Structure formats: structure tokens, C-alpha cells
């Protein structure tokens, strides 16, 4: 799709952030470009509008930027998957490993039901640990995860392998 080149060009790469050796993919410059931002949302909406998706689950924090406009456009509910101790109601949580140590994401009990068909949205898949934890939260309550959608993939890190047979759709592959 011709729109993908414009989206890729709008993403800024910042070397050595947040630490030396990391080439950080910065999507804030995509958000500064209304055409690129609209094209990003449109491409996801075109893909998911007729798939019977009932919930878009966005991963904190940048999944909160891309998830809600997709959810509104396809007529699905939006559910935030948050860092620990942010959600006020009863939660279930899923731990995942980082390079050093572990982290957790949480989801409100009752937000997603066994009958739901889910799309998980984040800005970027690197090792796949974050998306894998997100998928597990949804599957624990019986929902069907139709697909995971990200703007950017770092294919060298083989994050897809961690997700087994759950499909991952990305717009831009970064090297
Ligand atoms: P993973 O769990 O797949 O290793 O890492 C993905 C998570 O880390 C995502 O939530 C994503 O927002 C964040 N992340 C890791 N590297 C980058 C990056 O270069 N750019 C952005 N925007 N997010 C990143």
C-alpha cells in the first residue's frame, strides 16, 4: 500500500535512547503528521472492520494512542491494559520478563467476556513479551484473540515466535 511509505518516513529514529545501543523508534513524529496518523488508523480500520471484533485492547502507553480511534471506527469497545496499580477496580495481571527483571500488565475484571473477539494494539513489537502477556490476559477470560496489530516490528528480535499461532500484523518493519 502506497500509504505505508509515508508512515515509515514519519517515524523518527533516536539512537542511544533510553540507553546506549538502542535505536528507539519514535512514533511522536508520526502523530505530528496528520496524513500519516490518519493513514495509520485507516489501514487498521480497513483490515479489521468486517472481522466481528468486539474489543480493542490497547497496551499502555502507546497502545492508548492507536487503539481508541480504531475501536471507535469499527464499533468495538476499548479496554486499556495497564501497568501495575493504575486500574482502580478488581484486576487480573500477567507478568512478563524484561532484559533485567520482570514487569506486569493488568486488566479490569469484567471488561472482557468469553464471547468477545479481540484485537490487541500496541505501537511496536520487539521481543514480543509485552504482546504475549496482553494476549494471555484476554485468553484467560476466554476471549478469542483474532490478531495483534502494531505500527512497527523489529523483526530481528523474532517477537512473533513468542506469540505462537496468534497472527501479528504490522505496517512497518524496522531494521
Ligand atoms: P517487547 O515486549 O516486544 O520486547 O517490547 C515492546 C514494548 O516496548 C512496546 O510496548 C513498545 O511500546 C516498547 N518499545 C520497545 N522498543 C521501542 C521502540 O524502539 N520504540 C517504541 N515506540 N516503543 C518501544
Structure report:
- The structure is a single chain.
- The chain is of the alpha/beta class and 175 residues long.
- The chain has a single domain, classed as 3-Layer(aba) Sandwich (Rossmann fold).
- It has helices at 3-10, 28-31, 34-48, 63-74, 129-140, 159-162, and strands at residues 12-15, 23-26, 55-59, 77-81, 91-97, 102-108, 117-125, 144-153, 168-173.
- Strand 5 (91-97) and strand 6 form a beta hairpin.
- Helix 1 (3-10) crosses helix 3 and helix 3 crosses helix 4.
- The longest helix has 15 residues, at 34-48.
- The structure holds guanosine-5'-monophosphate.
- The site of guanosine-5'-monophosphate has 15 residues, from strand 2, strand 7 and helix 5.
The description of the largest β-sheet is: 5 strands, parallel
How much strand?
25-35%
Q: What's the number of domains?
A: 1
Rg calc: 16 Å
The run of helices and strands is HEEHHEHEEEEHEHE
Number of helices: 6
The unique ligands bound to this protein are:
guanosine-5'-monophosphate
Shape category = globular
What is the overall pLDDT average? 97
- CATH level 1 class label: Alpha Beta
Helix/strand structural class? alpha/beta
| Overall strand count | 9
Helix content: 25-40%
Amino acid at each position: 500500500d502506497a500509504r505505508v511509505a509515508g508512515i515509515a518516513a514519519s517515524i523518527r529514529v533516536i539512537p542511544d535512547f533510553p540507553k546506549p545501543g538502542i535505536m528507539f523508534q519514535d512514533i511522536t513524529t508520526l502523530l505530528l503528521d496528520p496524513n500519516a496518523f490518519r493513514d495509520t488508523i485507516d489501514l487498521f480500520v480497513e483490515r479489521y472492520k468486517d472481522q466481528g471484533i468486539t474489543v480493542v485492547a490497547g497496551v499502555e502507553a502507546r497502545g492508548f494512542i492507536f487503539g481508541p480511534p480504531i475501536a471507535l471506527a469499527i464499533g468495538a469497545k476499548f479496554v486499556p491494559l495497564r501497568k501495575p496499580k493504575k486500574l482502580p477496580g478488581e484486576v487480573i495481571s500477567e507478568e512478563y520478563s524484561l532484559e533485567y527483571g520482570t514487569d506486569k500488565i493488568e486488566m479490569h475484571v469484567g471488561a472482557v467476556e468469553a464471547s468477545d473477539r479481540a484485537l490487541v494494539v500496541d505501537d511496536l513489537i520487539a521481543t514480543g513479551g509485552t504482546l504475549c502477556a496482553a494476549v494471555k490476559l484476554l485468553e484467560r477470560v476466554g476471549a478469542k484473540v483474532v490478531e495483534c496489530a502494531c505500527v512497527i516490528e523489529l523483526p530481528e528480535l523474532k517477537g512473533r515466535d513468542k506469540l505462537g499461532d496468534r497472527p501479528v500484523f504490522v505496517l512497518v518493519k524496522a531494521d
